[in-house]
Amino acid sequence: MSQATAMAVFRAADGAKTQDEIQARNSEMHAAHLSSHSGDTDAAYAVAGMLQHFPTAGVVKLHNGSAFLETLTPAASAPATAASTGAKGQFWLHATGVDICVATDTWLRFAGASF
After folding, report:
1. Less Cβ around it within 10 Å: N or C end of the chain?
2. 3 falls within a domain
3. For residue 96, is it within any domain?
4. C-alpha–C-alpha distance, residues 8 and 32, integer Å
């Protein structure tokens, strides 16, 4: 089985697909979901957009389609402003969303919403 490169469904622009093509994509995506795990080694089967927790290092990494490259680590404290001290990849969870440091001393706030 080939590894999926992204968690996605077929687009209309891809044209009509056979039942076998649809089943193959579903199987790839299912295998990717099953491989999501928490451990200190890279998941054996991962796709772009997958997050993995590395407990010993205390970080979460984002898979870019080739490898787990982007590391997210908890910040020592909540950023007070968008220009608060921080390093790329730090995050802070709060009651209304998450703050992520996207560059040195540059924070973005993402508000959560219930669904």
Report:
1. C
2. no
3. yes
4. 11
Look at residues 101, 68, 107, 97 and name the one whose alpha carbon lies nearest to residue 87: 101
The confidence band for 95, taking pLDDT boundaries of 50, 70 and 90, is confident
* In a domain? residue 79: yes
Domain count, the chain: 1
Spell out the residues 6+ positions from residue 32 whose beta carbon is closer than 8 angstroms to its own.
Answer: 3, 4, 7, 45, 46, 47, 50
DSSP string, 36-78: ---SSS--SS--BT-EEEETTTTEEEEE-SSSEEEEEEE-SS-
Task: Give me the mean pLDDT over the 84-96 stretch.
Answer: 87
Asked if residue 4 is part of any domain, the answer here is no
pTM for this model (two decimals): 0.47
Q: Name the residue range of residue 83's domain.
A: 12-111
